[in-house]
Specification:
The protein is built from 5 helices and 9 strands; from the N terminus they run E-E-H-E-E-H-H-E-E-H-E-E-H-E. The strands form 2 sheets. A 5-stranded antiparallel beta sheet has the order 4-3-9-6-5. A 4-stranded mixed beta sheet has the order 1-2-8-7. Strand 7 and strand 8 form a beta hairpin. The radius of gyration is 18 Å and the shape is globular. The protein has one domain: Hypothetical protein yfbM fold. The chain has 198 residues and is an alpha+beta fold. Helix 2 crosses helix 5.
């Protein structure tokens, strides 16, 4: 199931989405990765707006959360000194606002070599934490606090068509970014490195 950031043309109002399975006929315009073209889909699909208060949604593979751990790469034994949890809303917003793309300018270490945009653990040395906070602050300044967005997280066509959406509250995400900046500052002051589990 694709999970990269996607957009929807001619998006429907929030009331048209459902929080449980309900088959509706909808026309979706979905981008082809790496292409300016859009493919046109007209099918009966389940449209699901993810709800953090619905425990059934927590079981969906598209419902992703993350964590940032404060560690020391020179430790002989693995130890986490502190953690910052990334809830499902902020996780989706983190990718929606392209934070991984901008942060990947930094020298992340990951097994796959894909940096922060991978599904592997990614590490960042404490010497880069000041640059990390500068990037986050710059991106935070570009976010329109007043403009909520409904984003398409991903879709599947088998065994039935399902499109998964999430409501992004930018003001809530900006609060999270403030906590992240503070966490990074404290980590740098302690000479700690960061481990990202996304």
């Amino acid at each position: 199931m694709p999970t990269e950031k996607m957009s929807v043309k001619n998006i429907y109002n929030k009331d048209s989405y459902v929080k449980t399975n309900s088959i509706k006929n909808r026309e979706l315009f979905l981008p082809i990765k790496g292409s300016p073209l859009f493919i046109y889909l007209a099918m009966n699909i389940h449209r699901i707006l993810l709800d953090d208060n619905n425990p059934e949604h927590h079981e969906l593979s598209i419902y992703r959360t993350g964590r940032i751990n404060r560690v020391r790469l020179q430790d002989k034994s693995y130890k986490t000194y502190c953690s910052l949890e990334i809830g499902a809303h902020d996780y989706a917003a983190f990718f929606h606002y392209d934070l991984p793309q901008f942060l990947n300018r930094l020298p992340f270490i990951s097994e796959s070599g894909n940096g922060l945009d991978s599904w592997d653990e990614a590490f960042l040395h404490h010497s880069s934490l000041g640059s990390m906070n500068q990037i986050i602050a710059e991106r935070r300044a570009t976010i329109n606090h007043q403009h909520n967005e409904i984003i398409l997280l991903g879709w599947q066509d088998q065994p039935v068509g399902v499109a998964y959406f999430r409501d992004i509250d930018p003001a809530k995400f900006v609060v999270f970014l403030g906590k992240l900046i503070e966490f990074v500052e404290e980590s740098a002051a302690a000479g700690c490195d960061l481990e990202f589990i996304l």
